[in-house]
Design goal:
With about 150 residues, the protein is an alpha+beta fold. It contains four helices and four strands; from the N terminus they run ββααααββ. A two-stranded antiparallel ribbon has the order 1-2. The protein is flat.
Length: about 150
């Protein structure tokens, strides 16, 4: 199944902020770049915008998730898309779609009724994606989050 995945790890060296070549701390160098470009929502001095929210009195019971919805969502997942933290490849989901559609429908129906998404499905892997220019420059990468294909059925 890994042969169907687009994720490739071929970053062998990068330049750090001082221009020195880094070969052993590539993840740290990219993390520093991504943190510099993107803000940290958990930063203590960060102020959240004040949006007016409507009072939610009960979970959403009007939205119904059907087996057909799940099957359609599985059909839309690209065969070669990389798996997220649970490691479930798209090809497995696609080939077992009919058997998995009912358990997934029950999972997401329960989620709609309770207003909760299992914590595991909120996780993702951040992977660097080369944009253009020199592959040795961290600024030429953007972060892409790889999430579970199971979440994509919701």
């Amino acid at each position: 199944a890994k042969s169907f995945s687009k994720v490739k790890s071929n970053i062998t060296s990068l330049h750090d902020k001082s221009g020195c070549i880094v070969t052993d701390k590539i993840a740290d160098t990219l993390q520093e770049q991504f943190c510099w470009v993107f803000s940290d929502p958990n930063r203590p001095d960060k102020v959240s915008p004040n949006f007016p929210f409507a009072d939610v009195k009960s979970p959403d019971t009007e939205v119904q998730v059907t087996k057909e919805d799940i099957l359609e969502a599985i059909k839309d997942i690209k065969m070669d898309s990389a798996p997220g933290p649970n490691g479930i490849p798209a090809i497995l989901l696609k080939r077992c779609a009919e058997s998995l559609s009912l358990p997934l429908q029950l999972l997401w129906s329960e989620s709609m009724m309770t207003g909760l998404v299992p914590k595991f499905y909120k996780m993702g892997y951040v992977s660097p994606l080369h944009k253009k220019g020199s592959k040795a420059e961290p600024v030429n990468y953007r972060p892409v989050t790889l999430t579970s294909h199971i979440v994509k059925t919701f």
